[in-house]
Amino acid sequence: MSLHVLVVLHCNLGQYNEAIPVFERSIKILVIEDGQTHALAKFVGCMQLGDIYAMLDQIENSILCYTAAIDRRLMGLICDSKGDYESALEHYVLASMAMATNSHELDVASIDCNIRDAYLSLARFDEVVFPY
């Protein structure tokens, strides 16, 4: 958490070039297998790092970060196609939260459709309405 605070301080001071290596390290040390909190932090971190690169006109680096974040949705689709709807749901929810954090409303709407489908596949009909 302290690395994220350091990143915020650098960004608030407009020191984006100094923030990037700290941010990259904070993302690298997170282990997705350590639970949803780590996975979400890594996912959101990739999106935010992509935003920093975009502000610095480093478009290629920005796209690479966004691609890493979008991989979460891709993992959801893969799990979904294998019939592992519970895992797919976890990936979709993380993807939706990260996209919402970064104001990507169209992506959120699309991912929310995947979330509804996963709930239906799990016969969790009472939860289907949540993404609406």
Topology:
Blueprint: H1 2-12, H2 16-28, H3 36-55, H4 59-81, H5 85-101, H6 105-121
Helix pairs in contact: 1-2, 2-3, 3-4, 3-5, 4-5, 5-6
Can you offer a commentary on this structure?
This protein has 132 residues and is an all-alpha fold. Helix content is 77%, strand content 0%. It has helices at residues 2-12, 16-28, 36-55, 59-81, 85-101, 105-121. Helix 1 (2-12) runs antiparallel to helix 2, helix 2 (16-28) runs antiparallel to helix 3 and helix 4 (59-81) runs antiparallel to helix 5. The longest helix is centred in the middle third of the chain and has 23 residues, at 59-81. The radius of gyration is 16 Å and the shape is elongated. The chain starts with a helix and ends in an 11-residue tail after the last helix. The relative contact order is 0.10. The mean pLDDT is 84.
Summarize this structure briefly.
With 132 residues, the chain is an all-alpha fold. It contains six helices and no strands.
